[in-house]
Amino acid sequence: MDMADFYALQQLTAPLSTGRQGKLTVHDLGHLRLPSGKLGACDPFTSLEYPLVVRLTPGDYPVRVTVADVSPEQDGSHLREAYLSLVLSDAESVTVEAAPGPEGPPPPGHYFTVGVDAGTVAFVDAEAVLRCMPDPTTWYEELFDSDDPDSWFSLMDADGLYPAGTANIVMPLAPNGENVVLSHSGWGDGEYWLLQTKDAQGNLTGVHIDLAVAGKFDEEPGRKEPFPSAGVTDPKPQRKSWLAKLLGR
Questions:
Q1: CA–CA distance, 125 with 136 (Å, rounded to integer)
Q2: Nearest Cα to Cα of residue 193 among 208, 173, 177
Q3: CA-based nearest residue to 189, from 145, 241, 232, 140
Q4: CA–CA gap between residue 148 and residue 150 (Å, rounded)
Q5: Residues 6+ apart with CB under 8 A from 137
Q6: What are the backbone dihedrals phi and psi of residue 138, each rounded to the nearest 5 degrees, phi first?
Q7: Element (H, E) at 128
Q8: Which of 2, 6, 127, 199 is the most buried (most CB within 10 A)?
């Protein structure tokens, strides 16, 4: 992947999948606690128990969302999340590539993807989910959509400490603030590339979920142009699930 086609954490005007240019804005979503070093990337409403895992050094890391203005007038009336990023270093990123899974990197030209079926992506400590979440059968009615102000849906809809469409939520049984950082997923459901960036010395600077909003594009809005390699996993929004429609995505 060409670094010139990567726009996470950049506050500038970039080509969009709509075929227009759009302004990018970066928002701070607080820190993710990663005590096990097992970074999980997932749709938190459908696969929180089974995230795609990247192994990192344990610690607390900033999370940021890059938001694109996709409105024709560029007046902020239509915003879409373009990247969700876990920041490991403020050093300049000079390369971008497919992030590895637990067993190593994917084959050349391929990308591990985060499957989305509820219009949302998240970063979480994969091991902490097993310790810090209650019985999964209670999640939907008691946590996600309980009609309480602190339900996960309500927190994502609120426009307060974090922009509407995002949230930083401590898990219910967390003894030390283990949390989930969530963001709506750009155009909605689909399979989205998990990428990593490195500095000039080859050190990791970030892990990113590319939501197919900014960068190369073809004629179909929301779909990134595939890179020239056989079998490349191409992120593309699909039909919205009932849960995504419920979320207004």
A1: 17
A2: 208
A3: 241
A4: 5
A5: none
A6: -100, -5
A7: helix 126-132
A8: 6
**Encoding tokens for residue 198?**
């490195």
Q: What is the pLDDT of residue 216?
A: 67
Name residue, tokens 């971008």. Answer: 96
Q: pLDDT by residue (tens digit) across 21-39?
A: 999 999 999 999 999 999 9
- What does the alpha-carbon distance between residue 17 and residue 31 come to, in Å, rounded to a whole number? 29
Edge-first strand listing for the sheet containing 166-170: 52-55, 38-42, 120-125, 179-184, 166-170
With 0.85 as the threshold, say if the pTM is over it: yes
Q: Which of 5, 150, 139, 9 is nearest to 68 (CA)?
A: 9
For the chain, the residue count is: 249
**Percent of the chain clearing pLDDT 90 (strictly above):** 79
Euclidean distance between CA atoms 212 and 192, whole angstroms: 7
Residues 192 and 119: their CA atoms lie apart, in Å, by 11
Distance from C-alpha of 115 to C-alpha of 121, rounded to nearest angstrom: 9
